[in-house]
């Protein structure tokens, strides 16, 4: 499905740098699987790079994919595909141990060949400290203003996952979403 979605994005944005989000199960089993599936994003979907979750434990995969000539972005902090393993959608990096683990993971990804890292749902200060200590760009989703760039997820801005709404994402069209929900509920 992510290949299909990524192909659609490429068709709609033919001259834009696109990063395909590797789904859980597409890269964990082996370096060969990781490379094969990353190549699918490049060849079939027309992506320029891929993104995967995981730090030190995925460094070998990042290294293999990068060595295959594919730009690879890491994703740390709140990692939605594995959120259940750390108690759900919770801010990460709030404790010294959590910060140190994220820093260690960030350095491992950088050393493995990641071209950038996405930190999600982290306090500004820890995210900023990680950004200062690495040589590659650090982007944030709800990670404050001390990183190199910001991402905002369309579903968060549109309020598609109510009642959950990230604290850092203002919903710009709540009335439209509420009206749509009323309309859909009448169809049931």
What does this structure look like?
The protein is of the alpha/beta class. The protein has 7 helices and 6 strands, in the order αβαβαβαβαββαα. It has helices at 2-12, 31-43, 59-67, 96-112, 124-133, 154-158, 174-187; strands at residues 19-21, 49-53, 71-77, 116-120, 138-141, 149-150. A 6-stranded parallel β-sheet has the order 1-2-3-4-5-6. Helix 3 packs parallel to helix 4 (96-112). The mean pLDDT is 86.
Give the SSE string: HEHEHEHEHEEHH
Largest sheet: 6 strands, parallel
Strand order of the largest sheet: 1-2-3-4-5-6
Percent of residues in β-strands: 5-15%
Helix content range: 40-55%
Features:
188 residues, alpha/beta, 6-stranded parallel β-sheet
Quick rundown:
With 188 residues, the chain is an alpha/beta fold.
Topology readout:
Elements: H1 2-12, E1 19-21, H2 31-43, E2 49-53, H3 59-67, E3 71-77, H4 96-112, E4 116-120, H5 124-133, E5 138-141, E6 149-150, H6 154-158, H7 174-187
Parallel strand pairs: 1-2, 2-3, 3-4, 4-5, 5-6
